[in-house]
What does this fold into?
Amino acid sequence: MLKSNLFVQFEPLTHNYICGNKVLVGVTSLLKKHNLSPNYAGISEDVLDKAAQDGTALHELLENYDNKVMQDYPKVLASEYLVSDNNLVASKIDKVLADYSLIDIKTTSKIHTSSVEWQLSIYAYLFELQTGFKVPALYCLHYDKKKGTFKMHEVRRLQDKMIE
It folds into this structure.
């Protein structure tokens, strides 16, 4: 059985990860700090808020689907799986598959490949550190709002030396 991180608590209201009395950095914030995330400058706050709400709703829908319906391949072991080094960074992985492959769900108009590679590579590093299980593959599940379809894209893993 895959056990979530027991040392870190997620506070949904503030979107903070807490380990003891320490606030950890989320992977999304870490990527922004190092200019590795998409730049949405010039896009109105209303549009970004609506996109965030839609993304959250889709994540919840898929989590409910995994928990109630999903019995066939790919078997999802965990949704919103919390990982951390218990010192500096923490985050939730959207999906962990039965073979320990990781999935991140994106609802943006296009996939920002470099950012997703960094994000999933950090997740894989933290997952392996926390569980001892090797992550064989990384995937981005992209939802095309216009078509109403999902497409799975394999994502290149960055070397652990880069992540460290």
The first strand starts at residue 8 and ends at 11.
